[in-house]
Amino acid sequence: MHSGLVASRSADQRGSRESRNGSPQLDAVSLAIIEQLQEDGRRPYAAIGKAVGLSEAAVRQRVQKLLDQGMMQIVAVTDPLTVGFRRQAMVGITVEGDVEAVADALAAMSECEYVVMTAGSFDLMVEVVCEDDDHLLDVISKRIRAIPGVRSTESFVYLKLKKQTYMWGTR
Amino acid sequence: MHSGLVASRSADQRGSRESRNGSPQLDAVSLAIIEQLQEDGRRPYAAIGKAVGLSEAAVRQRVQKLLDQGMMQIVAVTDPLTVGFRRQAMVGITVEGDVEAVADALAAMSECEYVVMTAGSFDLMVEVVCEDDDHLLDVISKRIRAIPGVRSTESFVYLKLKKQTYMWGTR
DNA sequence: GTCAGAGCTACGAAATCCGCAGGGTGTGAA
DNA sequence: TTCACACCCTGCGGATTTCGTAGCTCTGAC
Question: For chain D, which bases have at least one atom within 7 A of a protein Cβ?
Fold first, then answer.
């Protein structure tokens, strides 16, 4: 098990650098590591090291830090429609008042897989994953619209997922 | 120790079964494996096997098949905004004529990370990842609007990504 | 100069991955 | 019924990978 609670505080190190909004910026090597893991999340550290010019241990330490910092996650992704979730929808939301507070409330809902603040005729866009129509109806009309500050919602029920990629950079 | 599980699974021995639309459906064990890998894409096969009641080799074979069939991918995911892509947007598209043909054309564009057919006031929703404003402008006004059948587009530029999860099932 | 922190390499031990042989259980044809 | 076949699982070596750690270098602060 490697569940160590390593309290690695984000200091200014050679691998990353602070930008103006506080989120650490990645250097070229870490970017190359991420590209490798975007192609195959289980690729061995030694193979990654050979591709980016680092030793196996160095790659391992960088990956562990990226995971600890929450800047990257290595996960299995599927099309939810093939995994038993029959109803998915993108919901556009307009807000009066504190947008970020509404976003936090949405992020706390397990059915909301994806929450993003946007510019345009919606203030927020949320991807909702539900088991069936009743569940979706409940989430949208009861739970989301009940959040203080939500002015209106518009739903776009998914009919078919055509593409899903995680390989920016490799192009 | 495995007799009970095997017995309860005897009716549905195969890992996958054809459904009405031709896409293979997953059984409970493969779902459990996916859940494990949604928590940690690098979790060892033996640990997964212990959690779902299968041997290490069986888990490995099932995972390999899920990957080969394209039903699951194990990848690193990040917030593109922290990885050098400054501009991201969700684009809603209305189509006249063959929606699927337009969707295929969009899926062929490397900047389109996510393409989904929807019901509602948009026929398609597309997530676009770009390096800067010029790039985004080029993609939306020149490339997307040039696709035959695209009637109109509406863009929602990302300001901040608040949540990104891949853990349906584990709730 | 000296010290502390961060990152890298090297390396042995432990754990994991991999390929393959063998066996059990359904299914469908004769 | 009986047989052949497909499918999936288990077990087991050997190869590979992961893991933890010690030692080195570089940089910035004092």
Answer: 7-12, 16-22
Beta-carbon contacts of B139 under 8 Å, excluding residues fewer than 6 positions away, are B109, B111, B128, B130
- Whole-structure pTM value: 0.84
Q: Number of C-alpha atoms within 13 angstroms, CB side, residue A124?
A: 32
B63 inside domain: yes
Mean pLDDT of chain A, nearest integer: 86
pLDDT at residue B1 is higher than 80: no
| Best mutation target, B39, B78, B152, to test chain A (most A CBs within 10 A) | B78
Q: How far is the CA of B46 from the C1' of C12 (A)?
A: 24
Report H helices in chain A.
28-39, 45-52, 56-68, 99-107, 133-137
Q: How far apart, in whole angstroms, are the C-alpha atoms of residue A27 and residue A71?
A: 13
Q: How many domains does chain A have?
A: 2
For A125, the enclosing helix (H) or strand (E) is strand A124-130
Where do we find the tokens 């993108």?
A: A90
CB contact under 8 A, B156 and A121: yes
pLDDT digits (tens, 9 = 90+) for A45-102: 999 999 999 999 999 999 999 999 999 999 999 988 878 888 999 999 999 999 999 9
Q: What is the 8-class DSSP label of residue B23?
A: P
Find the domain containing B134 and state its range: 80-157
In a domain, A146, yes or no: yes
A30 touches strand C (CB under 7 A): no
Residue B38 near residue A75 (C-beta atoms within 8 A): yes
Distance, angstroms, CA A62 to C1' D28?
A: 22
Would residue A31 count as lying in a domain? yes
CATH code where residue B137 lies: 3.30.70.920
Query: B162 and A90: CB-CB below 8 Å?
Result: no
pLDDT tens-digit readout, B36-74: 999 999 999 999 999 999 999 999 999 999 999 999 999
| CA-to-C1' span, B52 to D20 (A) | 29
